[in-house]
Amino acid sequence: MWFFILAELLVFGVFFLAYAFARMRNVELFNASQLELDRLSGAINTVLLISSSYFVVRAVDHIRHGRSRACAHWLLAAMTLGGAFLVVKMAEFIAKTEAGISMSTNTFYMFYLGLGFFHFMHVVLGMVILGAVTLKAWKGGYSATDHVGVETGAAYWHMVDLVWIILFPLIYVLH
Amino acid sequence: MKYKSQAVAKPYFIAAIGLFLGQISFGLIMGLQYVVGDFLFPAIPFNVARMVHTNLLIVWLLFGFMGAAYYLIPEESERELHSPKLALAMFWIFLVAGAATILGYLLVPYATLAELTGNNLLATMGREFLEQPLPTKVGIVIVALAMLYNLSMTVLKGRKTAINLVMLLGLWGLAIFFLFSFYNPANLVKDKFYWWWVVHLWVEGVWELIMGSMLAFVLVKVTGVDREVIEKWLYVIIAMALISGLIGMGHHYFWIGAPEYWQWWGSVFSALEPIPFFMMTVFAFNMVSRRRREHPNKAAVLWALGTGVMAFLGAGVWGFLHTLAPVNFYTHGSQITAAHGHMAFYGAYAMVVLTMISYTMPLMRGREANSPAAQLAEMWGFWLMTISMVLITLFLTAAGILQVWLQRMGASPMSFMAAQDQISLFYWMREITGLFFFLGLLLYIGSFFIKGKPATAKDPATARGLASATA
């Protein structure tokens, strides 16, 4: 799993570098387009993901003490926030589509929509992983000594969160 | 060999090697035509030689995959093949159809062949690599479907392992993506777009699953390393291969009229495609160095290690070389592409089939391994072919760099033919190395006929080859 996480970070890393490179060549276009973004929803989403990451930390802490049910509850809470993230993000995408914006509009929007969607799919995958872990935790499949699954799921979710923490300032805010 | 029905793999492998010989012969003919333009004209024009060279490659690899699947699936599923008779019938259908197609290419003009075979009913011919007449294409679908039915039934009723499931997934993908060869829209952009779905999604997507599964199977057998360890590797490798391959495909959409964002998506994701190949190399070497047993078939181990290295170099490194949009802008369709094609096909797919043949053929002939003398000849074949292929690739790369420089850069670029004249030295060197490759192939084929007492794990002659490879 660590290999997978590192590979994922590498992909996003390459994209962030590509973004920086593309922006350097066309700063005005990027700055102008950036102002059209919905920063409030981006900020809400940041809070949602960071909170969900904290919930996952709580879940790991509980399973380390062998409390399966509490672990499952916190994971469920984390997934709820993940779901809320998806709803907010979806609303943002719909608004952009209605405004007639697509990946072909300009290079900035190519990155905004492309990276946003790519990250979106990672949140979905992260929720699937957390879902499987939650189910197993609920059934008492983990214990204080054996809970690699919970930690692996948590690591993946933190990765998804980490990428967003870089993506949000980079694409929405940084001028 | 644990199950009787696994023996249906044998005719498939023999046919594969026979067609491989044909492929290399036509490669030598067209290699010479690069520098002696009218060699064998008008009997075998360049375009026909090229078509035969590339089509034979695909067909022999398909024979190899099918043979491998018929051997591997019963063993992994721990039961006899659902229907060995069906598998044999499909072998003959495929062989006859394949031979008839090649004869068709050679004996009648392509346009006449198109007319004779009903291309006017459903036009699918005339596109590079998908030149097969309609009946051949339909035949491939029938053979593939019968094979998938046969293998799926075997797996469904038997044990399910990562290895046989990945193999099956790869073969299903192969069959499904081939269906795009029937789609031939009038819009040139769309035509090219879906053409790539067969031509390159095969090799940078689903074929990688087949390759990973075959490599894992042989490594389980020859190293005795825990299946669990090998399966974990396999999962990560195929996940990486699929993610990077499916979106990395975008490197073909750059310059054919697809939306501009593909320059970014194609570049970034295809730049990641070397990773699964690199993992395969690390995987193979790691498993062999952690081996729990000394398998007497050292040649098979050598092939497995070689596949890892050459696939990474040919598909990974040489692919990356020209995959980024700003580079590809200049190198598109030059000899650089040919260099990549040669080493990638040999390193990844030809070698993995030869690995499988090397491991299974002795078993199907009633011994765990061939005699030390036979293995030595096979290993000489390995080195001759592999080193020749490295040189062919280097010469073609040099030719490609020069070609791009002369023909596509600078204020007054040369015409295509003038540039070709300038790089003919490299074509000569490639042709001579090709002869060495041919010699290596003959030696390899000859190794099947060398008799003697089967090797044991301790044989010094064969152990040396392996020791030097893993040192």
Secondary structure topology:
The complex is a heterodimer of chains A (175) and B (471).
Chain A: H1 2-25, H2 27-34, H3 39-64, H4 68-98, H5 107-138, H6 148-173
Helix pairs in contact in A: 1-2, 1-5, 1-6, 3-4, 3-6, 4-5, 5-6
Chain B: H1 9-35, H2 46-77, H3 84-107, H4 110-116, H5 134-157, H6 162-178, H7 188-199, H8 201-223, H9 227-248, H10 262-271, H11 274-289, H12 298-321, H13 325-331, H14 335-364, H15 372-408, H16 416-422, H17 424-447, H18 460-470
Helix pairs in contact in B: 1-2, 1-17, 2-3, 2-5, 2-6, 2-14, 3-5, 5-6, 6-8, 8-9, 8-11, 8-12, 8-14, 9-10, 9-11, 11-12, 12-14, 12-15, 12-18, 14-15, 15-16, 15-17
Could you characterize what this model shows?
The complex is a heterodimer of chains A (175) and B (471). Chain A is mainly α. Chain A has one domain: Up-down Bundle (Four Helix Bundle (Hemerythrin (Met), subunit A)). In chain A, 84% of the residues lie in helices and 0% in strands. Chain A has six helices and no strands. Chain A is elongated, with a radius of gyration of 18 Å. The model of chain A has no long low-confidence stretch (mean pLDDT 93). Chain B is mostly helical and 471 residues long. Chain B folds into two domains: 1-160; 185-462, Cytochrome C Oxidase, Chain A. Chain B has helices at residues 9-35, 46-77, 84-107, 110-116, 134-157, 162-178, 188-199, 201-223, 227-248, 262-271, 274-289, 298-321, 325-331, 335-364, 372-408, 416-422, 424-447, 460-470. In chain B, helix 6 (162-178) packs antiparallel against helix 8 (201-223). The A-B interface holds A 3-4, 7, 10-11, 14-15, 18, 22, 103-104, 110-111, 114 and B 236, 239-240, 259-261, 264-265, 267-269, 271-272, 275.
